[in-house]
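Think of the structure tokens as a kind of shorthand, similar to the way a musician reads notation: each symbol stands for something richer, in this case the local conformation of the backbone. In the example below we present two proteins back to back. Begin with the first one, reading the sequence and then the tokens, and try to describe in your own words what changes along the chain.
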Amino acid sequence: MAVSEMKEKTLQGFREVFGDTEGVSCYFAPGRVNLIGEHTDYNGGHVFPCALTIGTYAAARKRADRKLRFYSVNLASQGVIESDLDSFVPLHEDSWTAYPKGVIWTFAERGMTLPCGLDLVINGNIPNGSGLSSSASLEVLTGFLLRDLYGFTLTNQELALIGQYSENHYNGMNCGIMDQFASAMGKRDHAIFLDTATLRFEYAPVVLQGMELIVTNTNKKHKLVGSAYNDRRRESEEALRALQTVCRIRTLGELSDADFDHYAAVIQDPVVRRRAKHAVYENNRTLRAVEALKAGELARFGELMNQSHISLRDDYEVSCRELDVLAETAWTVPGVLGSRMTGGGFGGCTVSIVQEDAVARFREIVAEKYRQEIGYDCSFYAVSVGDGPAKL
């Protein structure tokens, strides 16, 4: 659906539930797909995501009182969810409104208290539970519209940090910075090569001549807060503490593959050792992948994507049968340069680079194998690399 259609549908939702659209402003923030560099962002490593042209839309208007009224076009059956500026309960919200409320709460924590409430209607075209960062998109969107409506002075990079803080401390999801950063700092036709330890970044052109970027959804919903995601972070921190007894590092992202192999035995628990191996090797894979892309070596980039999936499957154990069937089937299709799970894992999507003339065959073979192995259908999206948040 085009931007104009999504905007109109969002305004229509606002009109239906709140009576009119006088004084309403509209906004957009993108979802993201990570090309390579998974579970490295909280380990001081590098990531390589890009913003997408799909994302989350909002229609918002300030109120004269302290009420907050939320409505989602995507979850219309839930109706209008009411709250106010005096009722924030971190770690105990169980509705989608915990994401915008977490951002409002974080603004207040940083001295940016809202003088009045607002009515907010949300409408997104990121498939729910797909791992394309609908939550980060909603957080960045909320921060962006609060900045505009209430006149706060913040950079987009600060909006990303606010989104991450709110997800960590209001929603209890111990995520790194990648998702929010990709949404807040997106640039059309470019991926973001980000050093998560320093937040230094550069834009790298994504030139896929004769290729398409295909996202394939397992249609298995993933919910990271209640999953093993926080366990992986704890295991990584345990590995880091062990390595710090024999080498001077602040993060796993500072080690070369050879350094890790040299010191790995200090990590007693073999499971924890595998977690650390993934974090180190994946970070260095990401460095090599960006070099390959800059050199126009897409086949090499694809090989590194495949290696990334194997590591996420075997060492970090955040894949699942559904993701493995998608990736491993894609590897067998001529014209597929690379395919891997993207996002936190345990469900969600794969991302594949596919030659244009092989896309139809890729979809046919992967869909048939997935239905045969899993028992229900996967979904395909040809995605485009887009800009960051905007007022429409």
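Once you have a description of the first chain, move to the second and do the same.
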Amino acid sequence: MTTRTDAGDADTEDLRQRALTTLAAARERTDALTTCVDDRDLTAQHSPLMSPLVWDLAHIGNQEEQWLLRAVGGREAMRPDIDPLYDAFEHPRAERPSLPLLPPDQARAYTAEVRGRVFDLLESVPLRGSSLLDAGFAFGMVAQHEQQHDETMLITHQLRRGPAALTAPDPEEPGAVDLPAEVLVPGGEFTMGTSTEPWALDNERPAHRTELPPFWIDTTPVTNGAYLRFVEDGGYGEPRWWSADGWAYVREHGLRAPLFWREEGGLWLRRRFGVVEPVPDDEPVLHVSWHEADAYARWAGRRLPTEAEWEKAARHDPVSGRSTRFPWGDEDPTPLHANLGQRHLRPAKAGAYAAGASPLGVRQLIGDVWEWTSSDFLPYPGFTAFPYKEYSEVFFGGDYKVLRGGSFAVDPVACRGTFRNWDLPVRRQIFSGFRTARDAGPELG
């Protein structure tokens, strides 16, 4: 018979194994993203919007050292001299190439040594007794941080000029799909956010009840083909579809299509990780800013969903009345549910992943493309910053818009129905798309 102590020990060992597995998976991906190019590409700044890849590499190790070896393990600093170099708030991205960064061989050696010491720590540290340790939170936070920087490095690879350095198989074809254009989400209360997800970050907390009227939401993200109709209808030249800030941005930068698109001889092409190819009509549109998503929605006679609407469509089960972890239920994502984890280097076709649909039939809410919402990035009622204000709190306000759902570049450890991403409304280099919504009459609630 298993005693309570034995069960607790078994739970702790499960948590240790989860922490070890997620940290190892993140490092495998980091290594793949930083060994596929030479040192010149690692140290170059491929866009002023992004850091050199070698900065991300050493920053990953520095954050791991600070939070796991120093904060959790109580160890002395290995390289306190480099802390300021890899402080994301102290140096804007455009300035980082001019810093005395660790060269690639030293960056690799440093991050490897940190990881070795972290694995030694993980064997003995109690995963209970403090907010950082409970359920292995600090280890989960660091794994998520590394995976988020892996996505950032993948964005840098997309911006990088030159031959392809990364390859991956295409997503499977979804087969014949006959779906309604939109789905009705009934009105009423639902639980938004979480107070129980052990590795959820501070801006996802706490769980709270939210009341919404009924609304319609697109069954799938907006596709390239649909967005192309907006382009060819002169959408980028018509100010009535744009907010004042959006129109000013379009005019200032001469925008006429999503980032990485160009027209040649009447054919629209895109550049994707070093390969130029025709724009596929049936994939979700990618690399559009919030301003572009908002303008398209106005042109289509619709609007962007609010963050609360997106989460209700993704988590609310109208039969049980509860909010699930993911659209398909509470189990972790598998390749049958969603396009995650850089298994592919593109979104799957609209209508894919039937197993990942919500109870109401909304598809591709998780993975494929980050989805812009109409909402500003604000704290939930009862928000408490943890473990540091710079993760979320300093970004709250009207400057940033919320994105939901993750993309093909997001690892499952950093993607769930409550996960919140945010960015400036002008950002286009990120793996962002959107779906639209519209109001429904109260009689449909």
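Compare your description with these statements about the second chain. Residues 4-35 form the longest helix (32 residues).
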